[in-house]
Amino acid sequence: MKVDPQCSYCLLSRVHYESELSTDDEILIGRIMQECIRVLNDTYAPGVPAASVSTSMHQRAYELLNDSDPYRDMKEVCNRTAENVFPIAMSMVYDGDPSDNELFRRAVLAAVIGNFFDFGVMGLEVPISLFDETFRQHFIRGLNIDDTSRMFDMLDNVVYIADNCGEILLDTLVFDIIKKLGGHVTLVVRGKPILTDVTMKDIIELGIDEKVDRVLTTGSGSIGVDMSQAPQELLDAFRDASLIISKGMANYETLTEHEMGPIAYLLKAKCKPVARHIGVDVGHSVARLCE
Amino acid sequence: MKVDPQCSYCLLSRVHYESELSTDDEILIGRIMQECIRVLNDTYAPGVPAASVSTSMHQRAYELLNDSDPYRDMKEVCNRTAENVFPIAMSMVYDGDPSDNELFRRAVLAAVIGNFFDFGVMGLEVPISLFDETFRQHFIRGLNIDDTSRMFDMLDNVVYIADNCGEILLDTLVFDIIKKLGGHVTLVVRGKPILTDVTMKDIIELGIDEKVDRVLTTGSGSIGVDMSQAPQELLDAFRDASLIISKGMANYETLTEHEMGPIAYLLKAKCKPVARHIGVDVGHSVARLCE
């Protein structure tokens, strides 16, 4: 996906947000903003991939903050919030002894709603206190794009590219049904901390490595998946997958720049540029298969 | 007032907004964003006056849009909305035969609430359909900073620097009480269209020139008042005034860069940087006298 005008100010607001998470030194924050405006000016041009701008800006901010993980505490909040909502999600997914096909659809829906756990995207945030109720509402509303029936026959050897902390707990509902059906799950997480995205450390702390067959990393702390930095074993896994499942907007932004598949994009459309690119409204729940 | 980190992304969002008001040519909009990022990069530095960044960015956007007034239709909407709310404002200001001092305080409050008619500031917008109710609520809530009693004895020769279309109709409630008390009102409007700000053309179309003693302009289409472009008669008016009344955030941002006074700042604090500079919360109603 190419950069949109809106990305420019969303990214500056996010750099400001993460700077304030990391420090209260206003002089340093002012210097980071000035430097990230310079990086924006150097990288922004109509038609460039969105992630080439965003990765450069965030990495420069992290360097100047001298902080490898400004979202450390925020990730913890995301996980705790997801733990609270998990029992509700579980009961709604398994309610009334559904068929495997229906179970898969519901688990995907729960995982997509979990994508709301990402804090800091300008324009669409859900207060933590409202998450239970929001989860119920969005579950009842269902998927706005639902290709889960077509995905259902492709679950032999799944590569599942995770997005944020918090939502990763809801992703396990999808892992469970794939495993129940006899499928193999390779989970992919970021190589280094970036935003609230899941890393290997988070996966081990949460015990999620035991829910899947293996865990690989993207090989970098870039936004989404930077294929130029992807380890060979990840490239092999993509090639051999019966289905790649890509979670969230950052993975969508980066993977739509490459010819690969079959790939399923599971996400909440949380900003106008991504929503427009997919052809849905902001707030819609998406499970689209591209073959 | 100096530039704040938040100004950087607020300004880019506003440039995007006004570009979309003026054209649906996405290629042109992309080029304008890229160019305004360049202007932001050239002008933004911690400690520079906020208006030196904002004026440069907006003027470059207007040039590239080849549009002298992208907010043309929006200004019309502001005026129509203000016309609808005016009878309610009038009745609340004059309710119960108030003293002149109280009448002035209420008229100032109504004018401050009118400052909400500015559309397009990120983070605080009031839907048109809710304006009546919002007006009532804010009127009952009153002024969070109220120096009107001290202003009341300074109304002999007032220079009133207007802000936006729409709210200018509510400003006439203040003009009326100053005139009733025997004072002289010099109204100051922008020299050229900028954002939804009032120009001489707007004043004449609305018949507001008949409500005041004379109308001057800032001599430019800069944000707020750019003193380096102010005509001599405006500088003379400032010097001779018993009280300068400055309406809204843009005038506040620019006039706080100069030693002048006595000056009264009437505004709704619509963004964090201005609210913090004044020492109030976002959404607060301010009538502060600086002597």
Shape of chain A: globular
| Secondary structure: number of strands of chain A | 7
Please, how many domains of chain A? 2
CATH class membership of the largest domain in chain A: Alpha Beta
Mean pLDDT of chain A: 94
Report strand order across the widest sheet of chain A. Answer: 1-7-6-5-2-3-4
Gyration radius of chain A, rounded: 18 Å
Name of the CATH architecture of the largest domain in chain A? 3-Layer(aba) Sandwich
CATH homology-level superfamily of the largest domain in chain A: Uncharacterised protein PF01937, DUF89, domain 3
Q: Could you say which structural class the secondary elements and strand pairing of chain A correspond to?
A: alpha/beta
Oligomer: homodimer
How much helix is in the residues of chain A? 40-55%
| Main sheet summary of chain A | 7 strands, mixed
Q: Into which percentage range does the β-strand content of chain A fall?
A: 5-15%
Number of helices of chain A: 12
Largest protein-protein interface? A-B, 23 and 23 residues
